[in-house]
Specification:
The structure holds two protein chains of two kinds. In chain A, the strands form three sheets. A three-stranded antiparallel beta sheet of chain A has the order 3-2-5. A three-stranded antiparallel beta sheet of chain A has the order 6-7-8. By secondary structure, chain A is α+β, with helices and mostly antiparallel strands. The longest helix of chain A has 80 residues. Chain A is built from nine helices and eight strands. Chain A is rod-shaped, with a radius of gyration of 63 Å. Among the domains of chain A are: 58 residues, no CATH class; 103 residues, Band 7 domain (Tetrahydropterin Synthase, Chain A), CATH 3.30.479. By secondary structure, chain B is an alpha+beta fold. Chain B folds into two domains: 75 residues, no CATH class; 62 residues, Beta Barrel (OB fold (Dihydrolipoamide Acetyltransferase, E2P)). In chain B, strands 1-2-3-5-4 form a five-stranded mixed β-barrel. In chain B, a hairpin with a 2-residue loop joins β2 and β3. The termini of chain B are far apart. The chains are: A alpha+beta, B alpha+beta. Chain A: This is SPFH/Band 7/PHB domain protein.
């Protein structure tokens, strides 16, 4: 092997080593920091990059994607002295590879510890009930504090979420009992309310019924009174008409009507289906009076012959009557 | 082994070049593809002109260095080179956008709600509720001015 042979081989090796050292392909999602003799000079972005071999070397390879940190479980004492176990997650993204590399020694650990201590302080200022029901508020407060704290490291914390809040078992059991008692109370109140409502409704119904009945009675009374008034008016008119007729005409006509009514009434007695014994006081004078009236009319109408025929039929054909039947029906009410 | 290489002669370069190119697929990001290209060139030239293996090696070294400007040109970022230019550059996407101040800027620091998170912004003192425009980004720090 001559010197030139060795030179050629070494040259090729040197070129290859140099190229591999000087050409850096940075994958998407990462930024690489470059140190010249150990001092940070620049940040390589994704793609092919050229650096000066032998002087420069890649320092840190920083993940620029959003990352998730699990915040480990820890015990937190709330304002009302309940001990709860809490864990969570934090999402952060590096925006400045240089700061994230050199401003903080261990970024993940730093963010984790910061979040843990802040969970303590935020939850420690709240009651257990608040802690359990105001997670949004807790997340918001944590985010503001932690995000402000990590900004010197070129990092942005995008969200912090409390995952689990576990109160101790006996507390959970007590909460369960409280819940049950609440429900039972509500059920009892509802039942009582229902009872009350139904009672009220029934009473209302009864009241309404009575009012309506009374109204009905009142209405009926009014109408009765009206009827009686009308009746009286009618009677007055009838009486007036009769008395007018009488004053104009003959008393004998009146007598005829009375006798007619009397006989019709008697006929109705006779047709009634029950057994009866009709006792009639014999008042011959009134009967005769009425008959005489008829006779008078007959005479006046048919002349002498008809009147004698009627007189021949008289004995036994007409029952004797007692008194005059009333001309008007008795008043009601 | 050496006999085999010697018997193959210039074919070695071609074989070596293709093997390097194939290795690039398996181990990306190392400069293997370009070394493979240089090896292929050396092979082609050796077919045309008979040169000693030492000269071939030197040629290989020269070509390998010469490929650097080639890929530099390829790697030069074009404005429309990527379908998502703001990948992993979330803040640069915010440049020129307008938001409403959630907390007032006092002593050069306030907050703005963007998406579902809170961003701290720097700028001249402004009361809360003002429309502000992102005028400058530096890492996670946004600088705003009244819109």
């Amino acid at each position: 092997m001559s010197g030139f042979d060795i030179f050629a081989i070494v040259l090729v090796l040197l070129v290859i080593v140099t190229l591999v050292a000087g050409v850096k392909t940075v994958p998407q999602g990462y930024d690489w920091t470059i140190e010249r003799f150990g001092k940070y000079t620049q940040t390589l972005s994704p793609g092919l990059n050229l650096i000066v071999p032998y002087f420069d070397r890649v320092g840190r390879k920083i993940n620029m994607m959003e990352q998730v940190i699990d915040i480990p479980e820890q015990e937190v004492i709330t304002k009302d002295n309940a001990t709860v176990t809490v864990d969570g997650v934090a999402f952060y993204q590096v925006f400045d590879a240089a700061k994230a590399s050199y401003e903080v020694a261990n970024l993940n650990q730093a963010i984790t510890v910061l979040t843990m201590t802040n969970i303590r302080s935020v939850m420690g200022s709240m009651d257990l009930d608040q802690v359990l029901s105001h997670r949004d508020e807790i997340n918001e407060r944590l985010l503001r504090v932690v995000d402000a704290a990590v900004s010197p490291w070129g990092v942005k914390v995008n969200r912090i979420e409390i995952k689990d809040i576990v109160p101790p078992a006996d507390l959970v059991e007590a909460m369960g009992r409280q819940m049950k008692a609440e429900r039972v109370k509500r059920a009892d109140i509802l039942a009582a309310e229902g009872q009350r409502q139904s009672e009220i409704l029934r009473a209302e119904g009864a009241k309404q019924g009575q009012i309506l009945q009374a109204e009905g009675r009142r209405e009926a009374a009014f109408r009765d009174a009206e009827a009686r008034e009308r009746l009286a008016e009618a009677e007055a008119k009838a009486t007036q008409a009769v008395s007018e007729a009488i004053s104009k005409g003959d008393v004998a006509a009146l007598n005829y009507f009375i006798a007619d009514k009397y006989i019709k009434a008697f006929g109705q007695f006779a047709e009634a289906p029950n057994q009866k014994i009709i006792m009639l006081p014999v008042e011959a004078t009134s009967m005769l009076g009425s008959l005489a009236g008829i006779g008078e009319i007959a005479k006046a109408t048919f002349g002498e012959s008809a009147a004698s025929a009627a007189a021949a039929r008289r004995p036994g054909s007409v029952p004797p009557t007692g008194g005059t039947p009333p001309a008007v029906p008795p008043r009601q009410g | 082994m050496t006999n085999m290489f010697a018997s193959l002669g210039t074919w070695n370069w071609l074989i070596f070049g293709f093997i390097l190119m194939a290795l690039e697929v398996l181990a990306p990001g190392v400069f293997l593809f370009w070394l493979g290209l240089a090896a292929l060139l050396v092979g082609l030239i050796s077919f045309a002109v008979a040169v000693s293996w030492q000269i071939q090696l030197v040629m290989f070294a020269v070509f390998a260095v010469a490929t650097v400007p080639l890929w530099r040109r390829l790697a030069r970022p074009k404005p429309d080179a990527s379908t998502s230019p703001f990948l992993n550059k979330r803040t640069e996407a915010l440049l020129g956008r307008e938001f409403t101040l959630e907390k007032p800027i006092i002593d050069g620091s306030g907050t703005v709600r963007i998406g579902d998170t809170v961003w701290r912004v720097a700028g001249p003192d402004t009361p809360a509720g003002t429309r502000v425009k992102v005028v400058q980004v530096d890492g996670a720090n946004l600088t705003v001015a009244a819109a």
